[in-house]
Design a protein that fits this description.
The structure is a homodimer of 408-residue chains.
Chain A: H1 17-41, H2 46-57, H3 70-90, H4 93-98, H5 100-126, H6 130-139, H7 145-154, H8 161-190, H9 195-229, H10 235-253, H11 258-270, H12 275-299, H13 311-314, H14 317-336, H15 346-352, H16 358-366, H17 375-401
Helix pairs in contact in A: 1-2, 1-12, 2-12, 3-7, 3-11, 3-12, 5-6, 5-8, 5-14, 6-8, 6-16, 7-8, 7-17, 8-9, 8-15, 9-10, 9-11, 10-11, 14-15, 14-17, 15-17, 16-17
């Protein structure tokens, strides 16, 4: 058996959901503040400290936070949705479209390279059967938008060309990652995947963003008009949340990702004259939800799977190292393959694509459905997600630190 | 069978908790905005519109919101906690202590009068056995802090003398209500309640607030010092949430009420020089959580129990009317019994104490444990909670409107 990503905390049985949630929130906020403050004092992005403190209070450490509470899980998912809304709000759609081609190349290479390296390597060097090898390769494809955007924001670089390329590419490879997961699981479940299913998944995931943004732009003046006529408290904020959560809900139910919806909502509202006021009002709300996501990611990672002296982990240690190299080299290639006309820090783009997160963890969770996927390979996927997440902040800071950084 | 307060929505089965929560939040925010905006346009407090729209989308209307989701329930409970934190932050502890005696008298009479009227009346006029009569009388005791504070805030009167007396009395009678519930349930469960249990409940519920406030005042300068040294985003807000949720958690686990903890935290932080900045930052967070509470209260009320033409409801219609009168007259007496030295609007105080809410609904939920409590009486309790909640805003507005109201 591989160690579970999520364990039951012993304390949660006797308390009500509210009391358990209050306790979890106090732990999350304390951890995020302590971790963040310590990190910035040793010149690292705050998010790294939040992740590390998450590990300290989570199942690898003090066991104060498990991942079992449905409420905390939903709060953390709403955190990612709000994070993407805020990123959309701070992004410049014109700028994002300008770097669109670059982002598309980075996304495509950043998906294809680790996928090919991982899959071929597992078959050739480790004798892994084709299907589990494809699955493991696919798990390496998607960059974590949440982690990478937060690092960029911590560094004050979200709106740099590199930042926009990374965010654009991360969004695209998330879509590609979801498509690959759907295809791979389709093959493993039915023995084959229908062309119709594949077409549907592709069209929905890529089409939603385009339709949401263009329909949203038509709707935006109407939105501003309504908000200007409201007289009750929370007029702008609550209306914006309806828009963001509404698009996130629509994205979910048509089979795409909730975060694409809130990101589109942010992009659309960023073009209205409400942008500044909304940014100011969404910040405290994001500060309330987003730490739940980062601390939870740290808290639910089990460092025991990293121990090379543990006989259970040893079997897959070579595979883990190989997949880790494939994951890193593949994304670095994505940065260096582009030939932009404007000067761009390609090292930073490569580093920025490294952290795997949400989608990688979703893959790991689906592994049990794949026949022939050994515990060693499944553990390796989890380890790659953890290590890439932890190594990206210092690397990206190093790459961007070589240019002058703006004070924010 | 009495109609249930909470019903299962048919749509929730197929979706994930996140998707269900997103849908619920969109419904909540749309309802609260539409209801609130319509209400202020016909010169009523926004909260009344939120409650009514909650009924429209809830189990008595469109069935878009049930009360079954654990996540939505916790979000709504966090909403009340944040509401009380904000009320504490906007309250003036010195002012509250100044009106302390008045508030204590209002609270005591406002608990004793409806309790006595309801219990004695049920026994004398309707032949209800003693134990269920005591239970029904006790259900009439506690004013809804949430509803009443929100109405005062909507009217810009939270900091008036009347507002402070009402809030202070509502907090005290919530404590008294919880004590009575514990005692009554203790008697019904064991046939008797131990003096030790009773003493413990009284000491804890009344003592917590005092200790939290005075210990908190010693801690406040230390809190400001820490916050001033933080360098990461969300420094003040997240630290304040740790304090508020931490005290709410402590209040819960020692057997008192979470809202007392966050209220104490607000009172304490209101005396620091961070008050204004914190008020500005907590507002958007409160705007995100608090509507979930008000819309949920509306959504989970079943108007079918109000139908006098329904044979099931008819049986208890006279009892319902009687309890309603007892509930209203009892609280009005609380307003008129005081003889303050300063000029105070006693009618407004009486009206302000009328809405029952959280504690009343808790009583209704515990009714099945009381032997001999007939469905008619149990339904009557629910109806009284609903009707008093709906009638208070216009009454309070009427009473306060007779003085000049400040523009906010």
């Amino acid at each position: 058996m591989i160690p579970l990503l999520v364990e039951v905390t012993p304390t949660s049985a006797a308390t009500t959901p509210l009391v358990a949630t209050l306790f979890a929130l106090v732990v999350v906020y304390l951890s995020s503040k302590i971790g963040g403050e310590l990190a910035v004092r040793i010149n690292l992005p705050a998010v790294l400290g939040e992740l590390v403190m998450g590990v300290v209070v989570g199942i690898s450490g003090l066991h104060l936070l498990g991942g079992t509470s449905e409420v905390v899980t939903v709060l953390s998912e709403i955190g990612v949705i709000l994070l993407l809304f805020e990123i959309g709000l701070e992004s410049d759609l014109q700028e994002l479209l300008k770097v669109g081609t670059l982002a598309a190349i980075v996304a495509f290479v950043g998906v294809a390279a680790p996928f090919a390296l991982g899959t071929v390597g597992l078959i050739a060097f480790f004798g892994v059967p084709v299907l589990p090898a494809v699955f493991a390769g696919a798990a390496l494809t998607a960059t974590s938008i949440g982690i990478t955007a937060r690092i960029l924001a911590d560094l004050g670089r979200l709106n740099s060309t590199e930042g926009q390329v990374i965010i654009g590419a991360a969004i695209l490879d998330d879509i590609l990652g979801i498509i690959i997961l759907a295809v791979v699981l389709g093959i493993t479940q039915k023995g084959a995947v229908s062309a119709l299913d594949l077409t549907y998944t592709v069209v929905i995931a890529t089409g939603f963003l385009v339709v949401a943004i263009f329909a949203g732009r038509l709707f935006a003046p109407f939105f501003v008009k309504i908000v200007n006529r409201l007289r009750t408290r929370g007029d702008l904020l609550v209306s914006a949340l309806v828009f963001a959560f509404g698009l996130a809900y629509i994205a979910s139910i048509i089979g795409s990702e909730a975060i694409l919806g809130s990101f589109a909502a942010g992009l659309v509202l960023a073009e209205t004259d409400k942008r500044e006021e909304l940014e100011r009002k969404i910040k405290p709300v994001a500060d309330t939800f987003v730490p739940v996501f980062f601390v939870s990611v740290g808290a639910s990672t089990n460092l025991a799977v990293l121990n090379p002296f543990n006989p259970e982990s040893q079997a897959g240690f070579a595979i883990t190292l190989f997949l880790l190299v494939a994951a890193i080299v593949g994304k670095m290639m994505a940065g260096f393959v582009i030939r932009p006309k404007i000067p761009v820090n390609r090292l930073a783009i490569g580093f920025g694509m490294i952290p795997r997160g949400e989608v990688g963890l979703i893959f790991a969770g689906q592994g049990s459905q794949v026949p022939g996927l050994s515990p060693a390979v499944q553990t390796a996927i989890v380890v790659v997600v953890i290590v890439t997440t932890f190594m990206a902040p210092p690397l990206l800071r190093f790459a961007l630190g070589r240019q002058e950084a703006p004070k924010t």
